[in-house]
Amino acid sequence: MEPGKQSDFVVVGAGSAGCALAYRLGEAGASVTVIETGGTDAGPFINMPGALSYPMNMSLYNWGFEAEPEPALNGRALHCPRGKVIGGSSSINGMVYVRGHAEDYDHWASVGAAGWSFADVLPYFLRMEDWHDGGHGGDPAWRGQGGPLHVTRGKRENPLTRAFVEAGRQAGYGVYDDYNGYRQEGIGVLEQTVWQGERWSAAKAYLRPALAMGRVRLVRGEALRVVFDGRRARGIVVRQGGKEVEYQAARGVVLAASSINSPKLLMQSGVGPAAHLKDYGIDVVADRPGVGGNLQDHLEVYVQQACTQPVSLAKYWNLAGKAYVGARWLFTKTGPGASNQFESGGFVRSRAGVAYPDVQFHFLPIAVRYDGHAAAEGHGYQVHAGPMRSESRGTVRLKSADPLADPEIRFNYMTAPDDRAEFRAAVRLARDILAQDAFAPFRGKEIQPGQDVQSDAELDAWIADHAESAYHPCGTCRMGAVDDPLAVVDPQGRVIGVEGLAVADSSIFPRITNGNLNAPSILVGEKIADHLLGKAPLPRDQRTQWMHPDWQTTQR
Q1: What phi, psi does 519 have (nearest 5°)?
Q2: What angle is formed at CA 528 by the lines to CA 125 and CA 32, rounded to 5 degrees?
Q3: The pLDDT value given to residue 377
Q4: Which residues of 18-43 are buried (b: 16+ CB within 10 A; e: fewer)?
Q5: Active-site residue 466, yes or no?
Q6: Distance from C-alpha of 220 to C-alpha of 208, rounded to nearest angstrom
Q7: 449: preceding bond cis by omega (within 30 degrees)
Q8: N or C: which end of the chain has fewer CB within 10 A?
Q9: Cα-Cα-Cα-Cα dihedral of 485, 502, 110, 519, to 10°?
Q10: Given 101, 150, 472, 548, which residue is catalytic?
Q11: Would you place residue 117 in the very low, low, confident or very high pLDDT band (cuts 50, 70, 90)?
Q12: In whole angstroms, what is the distance from residue 542 CA to residue 507 CA?
């Protein structure tokens, strides 16, 4: 094995959290080596927001994981895309920016993640943001300015996008000013990590400035395992050009390789459920049965409606239209290609008695799937609807002792008692919004589920056939108290049972947050950096978010 140059920290993964972590470590004067398997994020498919369906479906940029068949989804095996590129999943995601609800983080603290309550994390959200309202409203007192991450709002030029917000109002929901501010609950504008017409990934926000500092270097190669001296992590073995090279860390190794690859790396390195590791002949360094457990995700369905006017994005869904959108974006960074088109949406409660939103909507002014296949009906629109806090839990496990083999990913979707009722509620609430007068000028037939799908049993069958991952896997290296036998890392991100090893990505979430996961993943990188540096955490911010005063008795 060839020795590599030593640095203070070795970070595995140049994704959302890893880029933020490397930037903050380097900013503080530490030397950092970032290990990344994926290649460049250059090119229009990644950088044009409107082309978001392309990189997610390209092996060049995506690990291309396939989950195990799901019994509750009629044996379907769902895709589990993860970014295999500079910027990680922030370079292939839908760019919707959601902090999550205050109650998400207060729950983290209540189950052993001390120092991660909303009061603790809000200052880090403020530090990382460079928020721009673009003249489209917002809650500036709750937003950060001057941080590395640009957060903007789409122009909402499409009449269907505006109709969704008005329909939400007509359905009896409040219209929030800023769901990342004081009030999340309601219908309104969605925010995006887009700046001046381009995707603003973690690579642009953090990694490139970090590399420019001169204290952070990027190394290409595939991480194989952590190397230990006894129980202390010494470095990481990386395969480069057919050779194994060890990169050593004087102050610590940090896994920021995703909720799929971080637990896999731990297990390949001897940290995980002892019996499982022994099955593959892996020497046990620390028996941590929680490694790879607690896997969570968001499922969603597309409620699609035909549009009677030619105003949807379907007019661009042909060769000439795509050429026009691409050329306009390439030369001016404007037009439909300059937005992810998820410009309105909402967060609502599925029923009375739910304290804060547990259903999320994304509205899209075209009827199309994530794989880019449009509905045959032509012009249409859709609501992505799904529950936010399923109790279903899955696992990531090894399939082989070969460190280059994909792991076994088993989500166990729809196995919690309330999953079906919550999903049916999400579909019916989306239908209710689309039935309001604001959509009367545009409303054609319901494409799916279709008017013949109404009863509980019919909806359950349709959901089992059509539910798709929202691509938000998390939780597989759960953060908790050091005496929690199923916790993998302590509240400072340090792997329990060993020394010199930490995890910083969405795998440490105790419970999935309310919304898209890119913002909370970046938060983890920001906050864990301060812990690794031994810095005092940012001063707590004691503001509280809005809760519906009658949540116990009313749904809206």
Answers
A1: -60, -50
A2: 115
A3: 75
A4: bbbbbbbbbbbebbbbbbbbbeebee
A5: no
A6: 15
A7: yes
A8: N
A9: -140
A10: 472
A11: very high
A12: 27
